[in-house]
């Protein structure tokens, strides 16, 4: 499920070629996940690394992560 979530998020990424010749990418649904690099492929890889760290930290801190195309990786605790 986690791999599917990462794939869905990466498909939602937007990329932009900046005036300085570098590439900028972000995933709008995942606030704070962005990357900037000199090549498109490096930018994509940096974006995925950023996403993975964001997911791990978010889950560890108990944040509610966005549900992407019905993929919910949030930890749901049962009511006592």
Protein model, in words:
- With 80 residues, the protein is α+β, with helices and mostly antiparallel strands.
- The protein has a single domain, classed as 2-Layer Sandwich (Double Stranded RNA Binding Domain), CATH 3.30.160.250.
- 40% of the residues lie in helices and 15% in strands.
- The chain is built from two helices and three strands.
- It has helices at residues 2-11, 40-61, and strands at residues 14-17, 23-26, 34-37.
- A three-stranded antiparallel beta sheet has the order 1-2-3, with helices on one face.
- The model has no long low-confidence stretch (mean pLDDT 96).
Strand and helix layout:
Elements: H1 2-11, E1 14-17, E2 23-26, E3 34-37, H2 40-61
Antiparallel strand pairs: 1-2, 2-3
Protein name: Type II toxin-antitoxin system HicB family antitoxin
InterPro entries: TTHA0281-like, TTHA1013/TTHA0281-like
Characterize this entry briefly.
It holds the Pfam family UPF0150. With about 80 residues, the protein is an alpha+beta fold. Helix content is about 40%, strand content about 15%.
